[in-house]
Amino acid sequence: MTEYPSLTRALAEALVDVLWFVEGCEDDQMDPDDAVKVLEGAAHLMGGLSVDQRGELLDLLGEMVEEEADPDRREFLEDFPEGFGLVDDPA
């Protein structure tokens, strides 16, 4: 069993795991409309975080990127802040 330094880290890991799974699902694994609803719902929830909460999640995601060995998952983690509305779209 993996130990996490905080409940927040454990929940961030779980959230990323779920969203990574949903984004990678094939149509026969999950209805595409349901997948979009899950992904959009998560983005909406994260859009409502306070500045401090966003900062904390961004810090955790940065740690997760540094620790990730799988290149595909690492790319997902790197793109996560922009993809889920934690940062403004680069202009």
Percent helix, as a range, is over 70%
Portion of residues in beta strands equals under 5%
Order of helices and strands: HHHH
Number of strands: 0
Note the overall shape: globular
Report the mean per-residue pLDDT as an integer. Answer: 91
> Distance N terminus to C terminus?
42 Å
The largest sheet is: none
Low-confidence stretches: none
Spatial extent as radius of gyration? 13 Å
Treating each run of at least 4 consecutive H or I residues as one helix, how many helices?
A: 4
> Could you say which structural class the secondary elements and strand pairing correspond to?
mainly alpha
What labels would you give this structure?
91 residues, mainly alpha, 70% helix
Summarize the structure.
This protein has helices spanning about 5-25, 30-45, 50-65, 70-85. By secondary structure, the protein is mainly alpha-helical.
Word description of this protein:
This protein is mostly helical and 91 residues long. It is 70% helix and 0% strand. It is built from four helices and no strands. Helix 1 (7-24) crosses helix 3 and helix 3 packs antiparallel against helix 4. It is globular.
Chain-wise SSE layout:
Elements: H1 7-24, H2 32-47, H3 51-67, H4 71-83
Helix pairs in contact: 1-3, 3-4
